[in-house]
Amino acid sequence: MFYKDTLLKQVLKPGRYTGGEYGQVIKDLKNIKCRWAFAFPDTYEIGMSNLGVRILYGVLNEADDVYCERAYAPWVDMEEQLIKYGLPLTSHETGTPLSEFDILGFTLQYELCYTNVLNMLKLSHIPLLSAERGENDPIVIGGGPCSYNPEPLADFFDVFSIGEGEEALPEFSRLYIKMKADGSYTRKAFLHEAAKLPGFYVPSLYDVSYNEDGTVREYRPVYDDIPKTVTKRIIEDFNKAYFPDMPVMPYIECVQDRITLEIMRGCIRGCRFCQAGMIYRPIREKDPALLNEQAKKTFENTGYDEISLCSLSTSDYTGLRELTDGLLSWTDENMISLTLPSLRADSFTDELMKKISSVRTSTLTFAPEAGTQRLRDVINKNLTQEEVLRACKVAFASGKTAVKLYFMIGHPTETDEDIKGIADLAKTVINAFYETEDRPKGKPQVTISVACFIPKPFTAFQWEPQNTLDEYKRKQRLLGDCCNDRRIKYNYHDADGSLIEAVLARGDRKLCKVMQLACDRGMRFDAWSEYFEFDKWMRLFADCGIDPAFYANRERSCDEVLPWDVIDCGISKKFLANERKKAYDGKTTQCCAEGCAGCGANRLGGENRWCPVIKK
Known about the structure:
Elements: H1 5-8, E1 34-40, H2 44-47, H3 51-61, E2 66-72, H4 76-85, E3 103-107, H5 114-123, E4 139-143, E5 159-161, H6 165-182, H7 187-194, E6 200-201, E7 206-210, E8 216-221, E9 230-231, E10 259-262, E11 264-265, H8 276-279, E12 284-285, H9 288-302, E13 306-310, H10 320-331, E14 337-339, H11 350-356, E15 364-369, H12 373-378, H13 385-397, E16 402-409, H14 416-435, E17 445-452, H15 469-482, E18 488-492, H16 495-505, H17 512-520, H18 534-543, H19 548-552, E19 567-568, H20 573-584
Parallel strand pairs: 1-2, 1-3, 3-4, 4-5, 9-19, 10-13, 13-14, 15-16, 16-17, 17-18
Antiparallel strand pairs: 5-6, 7-8, 11-12
């Protein structure tokens, strides 16, 4: 126990802070040459559920001379105690203050966690600004999906890891150890050398200039020996990717407390709003026999009673039948349930339904994303209403009375008829329940969950304006009025938070002053509704002379230099611009299984069965 007993007695969930979990890594510090603290900028329950953290924690600790420990954002009750007693934020494994580590890593999973990142630095007594850190301060590194546009946090991070870290972060550690050993290490020299490694972006080594209208003019490296654009790293052979078969076991209930099998990376679909579908390309699969072996070993080590198959589109995994058959050969007898999130309605079958119903299942969820076929073609969903209804009927015939449907409002070209189409589709699904011959007794329940469209970097819609708040709220009311059947449950996301997310997703370095002021004013946990305050954000923008509409609600030209153009995710800008044009023409693009559309990701290499790989 690293905090005094008196502190733990004052907080709601002491198990968030005690450490000592089964499976944690403990090493002899005498043999360690590089100490990492891997920080998740949200609560313990969420961070412990993150597969990426589990993977990188395990990868770094494979090296005998590298030690990676964990840290999480303290909840507000513990934060109050730390401030009251003047105590710094510490690691879970050894209780070491985060300021004493060699490298402090943050995973950036969503934009509204940015205030938590800065608050954790403040609670760790580490200077917020990279330029103000001295030789004894940790190297602060960020990674994860939000690092594909790191500019709103550029002033606070020393370096960003772009892409997959399983091979990149050990290389980063080896460089640190080498320079320490040969005496060449200084903070400045190390960051210069790190910028030469593939996949590492050091913001301070790139000067940014702006046009008179506030748009970015150019990025210019301050050294000739570092790349003009930083290309993401990938694991080329996914079968060789590290798998955490002995994860740390939490003492308290977490959001996702189960075995998570990552069956593939990337997505063969090309939804034009989806950032993950682009930045995780090229598509790479893991062998079914290997996955079965990894699942069995993890079960033996942990005793978990649930296995979740993880990917962006699980039913597109080509080895799904072989994998599920292999898993069911031993999971049934051990009463282990099998869950398959991220199922597509057009590839959902009765056979698949029977497999995931072998022990227990929750309500099935499908994502039409738009209410009309016209708009589904615009966003390249490549899904028809008939396919949605067929999938729902399969679920009903297997004993389900409830399904969930995910939608998004605010897509480019959207009309009120498209909004009304969401309610119409939900009503059609209810009718499909009564048309199903083998339906169960009871009344159907269709839950529609509706998010607000957020234009994200490296998508075909990265140039699009976001709807204004007034327009979003009007559309939400319109849809609510159309959902006049008690068998339809209507949930929708807060439009205020979506505006802030859009600003941070497409922002540039000028937003750093906004983030610093947010930290000064004590803002954190903005992803939590009880702590998100829209009015505070608007005052921040006003006090910093920033117009949020410039980032969220402005249409951008395809020849504009974007804040994230300094990053190369493998997808060509020309491809994305062409996809945007096809969206306005109402034309769809075939998925990777039907033929290569030329997105450009194949130039990164990787074992890819769908498109011709250009060897590096």
